[in-house]
Amino acid sequence: MTTPAPEHRSGFACFVGRPNAGKSTLTNALVGQKVAITSGRPQTTRHTIRGIVHRDDAQLILVDTPGLHRPRTLLGERLNLLVRDTLSEVDVVAFCLPADQKVGPGDRFIAQQLADVMRGRRGTPVVAVVTKTDLVDRDTLARHLMSVDALGDWADIVPVSGVEGFQVDTLADVLVSYLPEGPELYPGGELTDEPESVMVAELVREAALEGVRDELPHSLAVVVDEITPREDRDPANPLVDVRVNIFVERDSQKAIVIGKGGSRLRHVGTEARRGIEALLGTKVYLDMRVKVAKDWQRDPKQLNRLGF
Ligand SMILES: Nc1nc2c(ncn2[C@@H]2O[C@H](COP(=O)(O)OP(=O)(O)OP(=O)(O)O)[C@@H](O)[C@H]2O)c(=O)[nH]1
């Protein structure tokens, strides 16, 4: 009897909480040595990668949300926008509350914003993380956990100490449990540009195959030509140009992908763009070309070029 391959999960998590809540310390504890290799994500996105938790069964990518960890912008107007746009793009949010400080107005404000995220379009789960447990005794911790529980409708509550490593693995397990099934986004836990384009290609491929899977089985490959931020844009409103080629084997298949008067391709573009914008965290101009690469599946040279 063969045992089924264990599922692999991958996705993004974001740590929020008021200044000094212990977010950086916890990030480092979760990621271990790997944080040293993280140099930040390509500038095409709003997210900066703080670290990657790389395990056999999962890859958890910890991203920063600009503004949220800075005291001055914390109460600013931009927070609402950031919360809705950016936090809803991650798979799980970890809200850090230090055990040695009572739940205060700052925490309550963030909790209110997070309630919107949980109720939002994607219903992003929020895990409450009680940090710095090593600084308090058991009774204080118990009381603190109760007030944190009363603060919101958290997916989970996990007490940890980043400094002592207490429950750090448990927190990793909990966060991973909210990630979708998926492959390693950063092979080997290394940051490169590649995964982004692999994911973009996959989104376009999915959209292009939607509804016509029977007619185009496997004869469709998507290659990303470029992902470049548009120059001269207002930094507050960036735009990324994404150019992709969709390869099919025959003219008849090209006609299917494009549809009557280009109607189907436009629909594919709208669908794919929605996913790509969520992935990159920015507005996207998507340029798609449909090309015929005859018998590419049987031609090793073509396969190479298409990245197989
Ligand atoms: N005793 C103890 N101290 C901690 C723990 N985690 C963080 N600290 C301390 O708390 C302070 C703030 O920790 P950070 O990890 O920098 O907090 P942060 O939330 O990233 O802070 P900002 O970047 O200002 O938002 C530092 O002095 C840490 O050493 C912990 O688990 N136990």
From TrEMBL:
Domain called Era-type G: residue spans: 9-181
Location in or out of the cell: Cytoplasm; Cell membrane
Ranges where the KH type-2 domain occurs: 212-294
GO biological process terms on file: ribosomal small subunit assembly
InterPro entries: G_ERA_dom, GTP-bd, GTPase_Era-like, KH_dom-like_a/b, KH_dom_type_2, KH_sf_prok-type, P-loop_NTPase, Small_GTP-bd
G1 as annotated region, ranges: 17-24
Region: G2, residue numbers: 43-47
Superkingdom, natural source: Bacteria
Region (G3): 64-67
Topological relation to the membrane, as annotated: Peripheral membrane protein
GO MF assignments: GTP binding; GTPase activity; ribosomal small subunit binding; small ribosomal subunit rRNA binding
Residues at which GTP binds: 17-24, 64-68, 131-134
Region (G5): 160-162
Region (G4): 131-134
A cellular component term, taken from the record's GO annotations: cytosol
Sorted UniProt keywords: Cell membrane, Cytoplasm, GTP-binding, Membrane, Nucleotide-binding, Ribosome biogenesis, RNA-binding, rRNA-binding
One of the Pfam families matching this protein, by short name: MMR_HSR1
Subunit structure: Monomer.
Similarity field: Belongs to the TRAFAC class TrmE-Era-EngA-EngB-Septin-like GTPase superfamily. Era GTPase family.
Role according to the record: An essential GTPase that binds both GDP and GTP, with rapid nucleotide exchange. Plays a role in 16S rRNA processing and 30S ribosomal subunit biogenesis and possibly also in cell cycle regulation and energy metabolism.
Protein name as catalogued: GTPase Era
